[in-house]
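During the reporting period, our protein records have gained a structure token line. One record among many is quoted in full directly below:
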Amino acid sequence: MYIVMITPECAPAAKVGGLADVVHGLSKELAIRGNEVEVILPKYDCMRYDRISDLTKCYSDLWVPYYNRWVHCDVYLGWMDGLKCFFIEPHMDRNFFSRGVFYGHLDDGERFSFFCRAALEFMLKTQKHPDIIHCHDWQTGLVPVLLYELYQHLGMRHPRVCFTLHNVGHQGIGGEHLLREVGLNPAVLMTRERLLDDQRPGAINLLKGGIVYSNFVTTVSPRYGQEIRHTNLGMGLQRVLEVHQCKVGGVLNGVDYSVWNPEVDPQIAKRYNLGSVQNKYANKEALRNRLWLRQGMKPLISFVGRLDPQKGVDLILRAVPYCLEKGCQFVLLGSSLQGDINTAFWNLKSRFNDHPDCHLEIGYSEELAHLIYAGSDLILVPSGYEPCGLTQIIALKYGTVPVVRNTGGLADTVFDANYAHQPYHERNGFVFNDYNWQGFESALERAIGLWTHHPEYFRELMLNGMRYDYSWNHPGQDYLNIYHHIKAA
């Protein structure tokens, strides 16, 4: 099968969050299974160009219709970890993808609407007729709209579209000019059944467009798929998801175990697996040495990820002093795009800067992340909501016990040591229900208590987590089943 991924991110070169890892991992799995896979991305100036090999200009005569003119683009071909990737570079005074950042500008709607049109124009001009176009998040929401409103009349009748919702908290809300600029007719599309936003009069919703016009819609975990249809986590999309429920399904994300696996990880101090889990403690020692923490018999608790309100930053701010008071060590790795959140954590860092059991790293380092996963006893994921979450899945593989909230993909992957319905050999972490400090504190207290007073049971919990297979093997097959289904329809 011939599959084209159209996406705003793909690891390792163009990565902001988990979306990049998902596109990379799924694409690799599909290629391993013998499918022809290509990825189309914007050519950002802030990409990790050292992670792209053999980058060369492959098409220099792409003219994309945009509003009342044509924009000249170059297209580059490069390889990321064996994946064939095309990067579209527009030459225009607005410098859509030469901003030094991936997202965060007021004209993000214009930037990615243009990218949708450019990606399809490139496929048309180079006569690419994939079986499946797989689009990711609101930034590519106009691809199926453009395909069925314009490009199928130009000969692109073959492709079917799968559209993945990674996080419906970001929907791409804008004015009707976004449609006009890429050659679409607002009078036809600005209806409640198509792109008109259900909550904001006169606004269009690019994510909604992707849902309405695609052949199948996936969420990144089964639980999240239910939550966004039946609770306020749908962020206003509940009605349209219910209308299109027959083509909506949840597929749990996987993790690339060639990258995140203590058995083969080159970035940790000592490798280990189920049979040599005692080697994990060499990584705990190495992490302490690297961060100038004291050695000793006490649990090391960590947080790795974006410092975003969604991730439960208010709970993390309270957890740091709480864990230290309980005689634990705490390591944090993360940063925020929001100045007030960054300030709060810098203040916390100043408060505990000389504490021998605490290190807060405000920033991100992939290398350090690997060592934290390997060296921690417990990892915290107290998210307000979590479409899937890769942190807890990675942690399980490293024998690091997660403490999570009962939501989204966290609920699909972590099963409480005390209260889960699963048998004891399937329990792998600690879970709390209500998003408040009382619930989080209770789970933390149970986790710290088990480590302290019942180390043999804590070890069982670690080993249970390491036995789970959250690789791309199962979701890869699920996606192939979806592709075959919509191809045959």
